[in-house]
Amino acid sequence: MKLIGLMSGTSLDGLDVAYCDISEHGFKLLAAETYPYDEQWIQWLSTLEHATAYEYVLVNVELGHYFGKMVNRFRQDHPGHVDAIASHGHTIFHQPELGLTTQIGDGDSIAAETGLPVVFNFRTMDVALNGQGAPLVPIGDRLLFGQYDACLNLGGIANISYDIMGKDGKAMREAYDVCPCNMALNHLARQLGLGFDRDGLHARMGKTIPRLKAEMDALDYYRQPLPKTLGKEWFVSNFLPLLYDDGLEINDILCTCVEHIAHQINSAIKGRGVSSMLVTGGGAKNKYLIARLQAQMPGCKITIPSDMIIDYKEAIIFCLLGYLRLNHRPNCLQSVTGAMMDNCGGNIAGLAIGKK
């Protein structure tokens, strides 16, 4: 099947669009683009959790129409048959312990703009089954990138997945959110007037602050059992206050964050038999972060793929999740999320429109 995958991440870089010929056995990336958010969208998406219910619902619909218009623009530049769209949406609230997760970007609005079937709301079924609703990417890591012992994504939040041996003697996927990543690094870079710390140059110029790193490493999340996930609410309440320490240089805080991230990722794979790891997400381009990771994991070969895979791996995997949903196959793993069972998540909009 040929699908378009849409991904909008917590780092607010923009909307990633990937056009793939895909099945559970492999994929061919036919085209991909990122459409950066303008300042108005960044403002709305970064503060929507504080808005009124009316504003929340309105932005949900408007974002869906925006996504649809970006798909139409993409298809003008990259024509070809498309069976369906698979949209992650943009996460605003993620509190699975309360039984809720919300990804805005209304699927009906996307379908109305494009005339294509749309799979959306991938996480809510898993949460309804008492799962974390995240991470969703590990099934794609297993099916599409299984040649690596582990897959690490350095996005707004760093998450990892790898196979472990289950009690029945069969391999099962384990995955979780490790720690904040670009959500923290980009926040600090913005205080320097930058969108991000290119190549980690400012972090490299700083020095680690042992006290601050110890406070970061002491956060309760790191001692919680699996399954577990992180959301913006946790970052704002628990991690962000540590970044506001009077008298500290931003470069030093950046350096400390990088050391914290590398330490937590190293702790995540220790004792897991991981000798090869694929690293994707925007953080894979942070040369200083990758150098610190490699320094802490000398026995693990880190592979940085092409920029197209770095930038669009999640959008590619959402094509896979959409394919699995449309074929009534599980696209969310119980071993990853802690749900009552493997499940097939995602609402489908627009089938009555037909294909365009």
Summarize the structure.
The protein is an alpha/beta fold and 356 residues long.
Strand arrangement, major sheet: 3-2-1-4-7-13
Number of strands: 13
Distance between the termini: 14 Å
Biggest beta sheet attributes: 6 strands, mixed
Shape: globular
The helix/strand series, from N terminus to C terminus, equals EEEHHEEEHEHHEEEHHHHHEHEHHE
Question: What oligomerization state is this entry in?
Answer: single chain
Rg on CA atoms, Å: 20 Å
Ordered list of secondary-structure elements with their pairings:
Layout lengths: L1 E7 L6 E9 L2 E10 L3 H9 L5 H25 L6 E4 L2 E6 L4 E5 L2 H8 L3 E3 L3 H5 L9 H7 L5 E5 L2 E9 L5 E10 L1 H9 L10 H5 L4 H8 L14 H8 L10 H20 L6 E5 L6 H10 L4 E3 L3 H20 L7 H4 L9 E3 L7
Parallel strand pairs: 1-4, 4-7, 8-11, 11-12
Antiparallel strand pairs: 1-2, 2-3, 5-6, 7-13, 8-9, 9-10
Helix pairs in contact: 2-3, 5-12, 6-10, 8-10, 10-11
Please tell me about this protein's structure.
It is a single chain. With 356 residues, the chain is of the alpha/beta class. The chain has 13 helices and 13 strands. A six-stranded mixed beta sheet has the order 3-2-1-4-7-13, sandwiched between helices. The protein has a five-stranded mixed beta sheet with strand order 10-9-8-11-12. Strands 5-6 form a two-stranded antiparallel sheet. Strand 5 and strand 6 form a beta hairpin. The longest helix has 25 residues, at 53-77. The model has no long low-confidence stretch (mean pLDDT 94).
